[in-house]
Amino acid sequence: MSDNQTDSARWAAVDEYLAQHFIPPDDALEAALDASDRAGLPAINVAPNQGKLLMLLAQIHGSKSILEIGTLGGYSTIWLARALPPGGHLITLEADPTHAAVARANIARAGLAEVVDLRVGRALDTLPVIQREGHAPFDLIFIDADKPSNPDYFRWALKLSRVGTVIIIDNVVRKGLVIDDASDDPRVHGVRRLNEMIAAEPRVTATAIQTVGSKGYDGFAIALVTQDAG
Length: 230
Prior knowledge:
- The chain is of the alpha/beta class.
- The chain has a single domain (3-225), classed as Vaccinia Virus protein VP39 (Rossmann fold).
- The chain contains 8 helices and 7 strands; from the N terminus they run αααβαβαβαβαβαββ.
- The protein has helices spanning 3-22, 27-38, 48-61, 75-81, 97-109, 123-133, 150-159, 186-200, and strands at residues 65-69, 89-94, 116-120, 140-143, 166-170, 204-213, 216-225.
- β2, α5 and β3 form a beta-alpha-beta unit.
- α2 packs antiparallel against α5 (97-109), α3 (48-61) runs parallel beside α4 (75-81) and α6 (123-133) packs parallel to α7.
- It is globular.
- 41% of the residues are buried.
């Protein structure tokens, strides 16, 4: 076994150890993963400890309105929706109708259909509709969709924010490939442009963290909106 394989196995084992201590068995979440796997969805959902981190961040922030860009099978959606107080709401956007159907069933099984509004279609088409409908500003925005569009998603996140909004973006390290300015991978380009945008944006203060675990080597960025537009 190579050193990289050894590292990956250790990271996954540590994630399992941490989950055993901090994440009790949960029928709705486990059913969501099982249903997604049976439907052939890619296994790119957040890890359980990452999902709980999202929930805790939303709770710590006191988020009453959440926007999620990228639903997949609804696993992270369930974690985020559980953080909402009474009267809170979450809008989640999914481009793939098959993924959306699986997510809708998973969200309903978790008892969250009344607080989650799942919109099907390209996010860049749906986001202007959400703005026109007057749902903004959101308290927390989680971006975990196609990486080449990350810069566009971040621009929209700013439009739909207020001072105090937290914006979280997943997969900003790409197994370390983010440092390769010669990469021909459009996902890497999207992440690099995103990071450059965040760093240059005067309306936010932000950081990014490298992570390892059952999902391999990656990371996330978190930005706090500190100034209004204009």
